[in-house]
């Protein structure tokens, strides 16, 4: 799936101009980009580089350092598997590996059809239901690896 070339919105341009001379501007700008597009598109990263006078390599260094930022648009169904202490101890890591195996993608990646993305998150606040996965806000608790197929099929049917 090739990336759509995003163009910078007037609101985003104004935000960058507002933050241009302030300390910590890169993080603030990247947060706004993520909020606007759902990820950091390459075309926008290039524009930011030019507008702030920051090397593109530095932008990608920041984006890849922090887990919050995405370089790919999330899938229609974003699968978040909890790896907080309770979930991890009850097999959360096995659950995430099973999602990766069945969907054929790694962490923070999106399936070629754009339907699913998988990410690891810290504590979703559902420790009593551990291990937990959340798909677009819907909680799936007390999971076993055998449950992953059912969850994937449930969302595939929805299209």
How would you describe what is shown here?
This protein is of the alpha+beta class and 159 residues long. It has two domains: 10-65, no CATH class; 77-158, Glutaredoxin (3-Layer(aba) Sandwich), CATH 3.40.30.10. The protein has seven helices and five strands; from the N terminus they run ααααβααββββα. A five-stranded mixed β-sheet has the order 2-3-1-4-5, with helices on one face. Helix 1 (10-19) packs antiparallel against helix 2. The protein is elongated. It starts with 9 loop residues before the first helix and ends with a helix.
Annotation keywords:
159 residues, alpha+beta, 2 domains, Glutaredoxin, five-stranded mixed beta sheet
Brief summary:
It contains 7 helices and 5 strands, in the order H-H-H-H-E-H-H-E-E-E-E-H. It is of the alpha+beta class. It has 2 domains: 10-65, no CATH class; 77-158, Glutaredoxin (3-Layer(aba) Sandwich).
Blueprint (SSEs and pairs):
Blueprint: H1 10-19, H2 25-37, H3 42-52, H4 56-65, E1 77-82, H5 85-89, H6 92-103, E2 109-110, E3 116-121, E4 133-135, E5 138-140, H7 147-158
Parallel strand pairs: 1-3
Antiparallel strand pairs: 1-4, 2-3, 4-5
- Spatial order of strands in the largest sheet: 2-3-1-4-5
CATH A-level architecture of the largest domain: 3-Layer(aba) Sandwich
CATH topology of the largest domain: Glutaredoxin
Strand content: 5-15%
User: What is the share of helical residues?
Assistant: 40-55%
Poorly predicted spans: none
CA-CA gap between termini: 17 Å
Shape assignment: elongated
Domain count, please report it.
2
């Amino acid at each position: 799936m090739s990336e759509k070339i995003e163009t910078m919105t007037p609101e985003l341009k104004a935000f960058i101009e507002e933050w241009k001379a302030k300390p910590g501007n890169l993080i603030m700008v990247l947060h706004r980009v993520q909020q606007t597009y759902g990820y950091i598109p390459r075309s926008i990263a290039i524009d930011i580089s030019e507008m702030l006078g920051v090397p593109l390599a530095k932008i990608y260094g920041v984006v890849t350092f922090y887990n919050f930022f995405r370089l790919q648009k999330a899938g229609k169904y974003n699968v978040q598997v909890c790896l907080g202490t309770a979930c991890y101890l009850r097999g959360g890591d096995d659950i995430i590996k099973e999602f990766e195996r069945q969907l054929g993608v790694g962490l923070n990646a999106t399936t070629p059809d754009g339907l699913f993305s998988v990410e690891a998150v810290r504590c979703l606040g559902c420790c009593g239901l551990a291990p937990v996965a959340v798909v677009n806000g819907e909680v799936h608790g007390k999971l076993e690896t055998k449950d992953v197929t059912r969850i994937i099929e449930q969302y595939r049917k929805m299209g």
